[in-house]
Every structure is written in C-alpha cells, then in structure tokens.
Amino acid sequence: MTNIKQTGTQDWPPIPEELQSICLDSDDDQYSRFQSNYFQVGHPALIFVAKTEAHVSEVIMYVAQLQRLAKDAVPFSIKSGGHGLTKQSINQNGVILDLSQMNRVTVLDAEKGIFETQCGAVWGDVAAKIGQSGLILSSGDFGDTGVGGLATAGGIGLLVRKQGLTIDRIISATVITGDGNRHVVSEEHEPDLFWALRGGSSQIGVVTNFVFQADAVPQTAQGVSVPIMYQKISYDLKDLWQFLRHWQQWLANCDYDLSSLLMITKQEGGNPLAATATNVWIGESTDKMKTLLRASKNLEQVVEYEWQQMSYADLVKAPHLDNKGDQDAYVKNVLVDQLDAEIVLKLAKLIALDSVMGLEVRAIDGAINMRAINFNAWAHRQAKFFIAVWCDPTMSDDLNQQFKALHLENLGVYGAYSSDISQAETKRVWPSETGRRLHQIAKQYDPNQIFNQSRRI
Ligand SMILES: Cc1cc2nc3c(=O)[nH]c(=O)nc-3n(C[C@H](O)[C@H](O)[C@H](O)COP(=O)(O)OP(=O)(O)OC[C@H]3O[C@@H](n4cnc5c(N)ncnc54)[C@H](O)[C@@H]3O)c2cc1C
After folding, report:
1. Which residues form the FAD-binding PCMH-type domain (predicted)?
2. Residue among 99, 141, 150, 177 to mutate when testing ligand 1 (max atoms within 8 A of CB)
3. 163 CB near ligand 1 (under 6 Å)
4. CB distance 84 to ligand 1 below 6 Å
5. For 336-383, what is each residue's pLDDT tens digit?
6. 131 alpha carbon to ligand 1 midpoint, in Å?
7. pLDDT digit string, tens, across residues 227-254
8. Which fold has domain 17-98?
9. Yes or no: is domain 105-218 CATH 3.30.465.10?
C-alpha cells in the first residue's frame, strides 16, 4: 500500500490522500489477500482496508462521490469476516471496504457481562476473549464467521434456545451512515437507527463497533472455563418424518439450556439418509442433563456417539483460514413455527434432488420467541425451527424452483443465511411492518443507495 494511487479506473475521481495508505489495486502484493470472500473470488478495482472509523467514513464519502461521477454504476461491498451467504461482500470492478483489521474485542465490565467488539473480529476470537472473563454469547457456530455480517443480520448459534439471536444481545453500537456521519446508538439514542441495524444488514450503514450483553457461566470444579456439554450423535435414518417427530418429542422434554441442530445428508447403500445431531448444554453437567442427553440415543439407530465437557471457546475456536473464494455453495432457508409431516414430506423431496448437498434443521424455540414482535429488525419472532438447504451453486435454479412449495407455509427467511438475493426473497426476510419501517429508515440514512451490494428492501 505504498504506491500513490490516482484512480480506480479512468473516469473515477482521484483517491484522497487520507486513503492512500489503505488502498489496494490489482498491482499490489496484498490485493490477493483481500479480494475474495469464503465463496467467490472478487476482482474489484479498489480495496480499502480500513483500520479506523475515520477511514470507514472517508471511504463512504469517496464512494458517494464516485457513484455520483462515474459513468457506470459502481458496486460497493462491505466485508467483515467474508462468510456472508449472499456473497455480496466482494464484487467485480467496484470497491470493497474490508474491515477485517478492525478486530479488537474488549471486556468492559466482566461482572455485568458487558463487552464490545469491532466488526472485523471473528466469532471464535470473541468467544476466546470473553471466555477468559467467564462470559458466553451465542453467535455463529463456525469460528471464522465475522462479527459484522452476523451481528447486523441475526445470529442463530449453538446456544440459541437459551440466549436467542446474537442481535438480541446488542445494547449499543457505532454506525457510519451513507453521509459518512458517525452515530453511537442505543435504545436511548437514535432508537430507530438502533432498531434497524439489529437485523437490517448493511442497507443502513457500516456498523464498526457493537456493545453486547453476555451471560456469565461459573467454571467447573476442574477449572474448565465457560463449560458446555457437547454431544455429537450420528443416526442412520429409516424414515425422516419419524426421526424428526422423535427429535421434537425429545426436545419438548429438554429445557432451553439445551440447543440442538441436525445436519441431514444422503448416504450410499442401506438407508438413503443419515443425520448428525449437535447438542449443546450450557454450564456444568448435572444428572438431569445426563439423563436428557442419554435419551437422545433412543431417537433412531445410532451409528456414532460422543460427548464431552469442554470450554465453549474450544468448541468454536477460529481456524483463521484465508478466504480464497473456493467454497462456493448456494443456500436457501425457511423459518417455520411447526415441523409437521406435510413440511417434512416436502423436505424429503428437496433432499432427494441431485443438486442438494444437505439439510440443516435447528430448533430455535425459546429466547427468540420471548421478545416483543418488533424488538428489532428481525421479523420472525414466532419461528420455532430454522431449516436450511445447501446446494450445488451451479444448480441453484433447480433449488429455487423446488423451494416454492415450502414458501407457501413458512413464516419467513433468515436473510444472512440465504444466497437468493431476489426482491421476492428480500420481502420474505423483512415482510410487512418490519419491511416498511426499515425502508423508511434506510431512505433517511442512505438516500442515494450507496450501499448497493446488500439485500435492500
Ligand atoms: C461456514 C459458515 C457457517 C455459518 N454458520 C452460521 C451460524 O451458525 N449462525 C448464523 O447465524 N449464521 C451462520 N453463517 C452465516 C453468516 O453468519 C452470515 O452470512 C454473516 O453475514 C457472515 O458475516 P461475515 O462478516 O463473515 O460476512 P461478510 O461476507 O463479511 O458480510 C456479509 C454481509 O454483511 C454485511 N456486513 C458485513 N459487515 C458489515 C458491517 N460491519 N456493517 C454492516 N453490514 C455489514 C454486508 O452486507 C455483507 O455483504 C455461516 C456462514 C458460513 C459460510
């Protein structure tokens, strides 16, 4: 980042001096480190690798000018951890604002469970840092997923039944809006903006810092900090509906200390489907917990089984893999308030498609349902199950077509877990009143639609 950059392409305005030191183009050695996200390789004209909020603000103002002056539309992507399933955090021929270097995590008040994190941190590192103070927060279950994308969209993590969405635990945030202005927002200060950035994604602005309320978990007598009981159990499925029925009956006996997610995949020979359950219980192991976890062995024929007490931070440890754009996939999801035989029949048809790699089913009843319907810009408080289908990205039309049968009965869609960026899907993410309110707020804070690489209502 040493050469003086004149412009990105011919008709673009000169790059301001303040941004010279953080600007990369394809001639820079460092360009390849920042050009891709998890799924795809980008070829932007310029990448700005921000280190401060002032940089973020300057970049936004530069891009605003650029979008006014350039002949053609200039895509502007916001990238934190680069794991966004919409894949819009990179682009071709536009500008990427990379926030990965703004990754500080600080415990502000361990006793009250309050910590702050910059948007470029990854969730595995957040868990490790706050774990040192005995704190835990449900977030992404893969340690390399970024704070910025997840904490502006939702956050369905391994402790979701107990703690709810990650965004439900934000108590204040700093956002730079489309005019380059910095706002520190909370329930008391600019509550509309605070409401919108918790679920509204980047159509409102770039959120640089989040303050969270976590929970404290006492360490075990053996000294395991932030203990959880982790159970992984694989089943051979004779019948998908019978299995999911048994799983739901089992869950109904478990209180919200236990969260459960299923990954259902195809298998060769024998029964066509297999399932792996990841069950996580927060806290020291108890007799009640052991009885519940043992009962999960009775849901179907068990193929593999393990459980162990461990620290939450170890479970979601970040591998810090470089984003090389080589993990492409296409994902669709639905949020439903019940999982009955009719829906499961449709799921069975979906998973039989050649294009489909696997089906994820997560129980999300509990804390999510206890918040007011308009608590933040997450529109689906009644949802009790989250169902996602991963498919071959070259066959996404096939999945979109077959998925129509499911949309008839679903409550909505979790935006950050869907690769479908159509307007119809966006309306399913933010339907009715949530959509109207979000639209008004986005119009106020980004009237010129600078943030054009984002789901936008
Ligand atoms: C392997 C894998 C596992 C996952 N597991 C989970 C899971 O368990 N639970 C879950 O809820 N989700 C999960 N996800 C989905 C993922 O959390 C979301 O897609 C999230 O958006 C990723 O955030 P990011 O910062 O890594 O993404 P990025 O690609 O950097 O950003 C995604 C989008 O978010 C917006 N954005 C990014 N940073 C900011 C910011 N600072 N301010 C405003 N907007 C911003 C932009 O619109 C951007 O296009 C998973 C994804 C993958 C690939």
Report:
1. 40-217
2. 150
3. no
4. yes
5. 999 999 999 999 999 999 999 999 999 999 999 999 999 999 999 999
6. 22
7. 999 999 999 999 999 999 999 999 999 9
8. 3.30.43
9. yes
